[in-house]
Amino acid sequence: MKALVTGGGGFIGRWIVRKLIERGDRVRVLGRRKYPELQKIGVETVQGNICCSKIVEDACRGVDCVFHVAALTGIWGPWEEFYQTNVIGTRTIIAGCQKQRVPRLVYTSSPSVVHDQADQINLDETAPYPQEYLCPYPETKAMAERMVLLANGREGLSTVALRPHLVWGPEDTNLIPRLLERARQGKLIRVGDGRNKVDLTYVENVAQAHLLAADRLADPSSGVAGEVFFISQGEPVLLWPWIDQFLQNLGLPTVKKSIPLAVAKKIGWAIEKYYHTFHLSGEPAMTRFLASQLGTSHYFNIRKARERLNYIPEVSMEEGLRRSVAFYSKNK
Q1: Domains in the chain: ranges and CATH
Q2: Which run of H or E residues covers position 205?
Q3: I want to staple 252 with a disulfide (CB 3.0 to 4.6 A). Which of 48, 83, 247, 307 is the partner?
């Protein structure tokens, strides 16, 4: 298979690229940089913006499957920036696939597209999109996910959307680095009573799920095309005790301070208003969306992924923790 990976220089994308190369697939990456480290392992790199039709069409030429991983993530920022990358970029990728007759498209979505601020316990894929979103990221990802699913079966393109939850592991550029930075600064504060249970997904398992989805898309009888799948470890953990364990293994202080969820939401609302009123740049220390993510339970039923994708997480939480601690101990 010849694959195109958008965002192949990012955290999830890089692991997908490695898995593809390991099994002998040919890989092309479309990203913002040239990524010489990927070129060294035989990856063809294309530098450009996913919103540019010409660049995307050229990148899609001769490809059997596109893994659309590139996205703008975050809990805060201008709506237009999220819309351009996550919605217009996805629309351009779909059009590029159709123009070049690419048969398969695997889209990296997010469980946050169905997050409704309440506890989500063993949620499955029948959960509806909420009426309201608290920030541009989940809303624009939901818009893009809808487009991907609607594109299924049109102009020879088969599509699937994956929703990996709280992806972590070695070389993480977002979740773990932020956690460690706040811990070192003594700024970590527990939101809620500390009993909320969440799914975390080790990055190699996420990459594995993407390859499985691509392979299953090639079989019209697999029941994968046009579908969405939650991806996780299948073994949710108590969030704050897990964070304490991670910090302890790195010799960092555990979380001592706490704040009720309702209070955190009110503080988040006030900070959001302040940022909007004074047009402040940067990311707020707390928002309503962040408070909900830190203080509620959100874990998912992955039975559908197990049955239709043949997905079984290869790396356990314990092994993922061991590998991650080893990596971050060397890269403090």
Answers
A1: 2-168+200-232+299-314 (3.40.50.720)
A2: helix 203-217
A3: 247
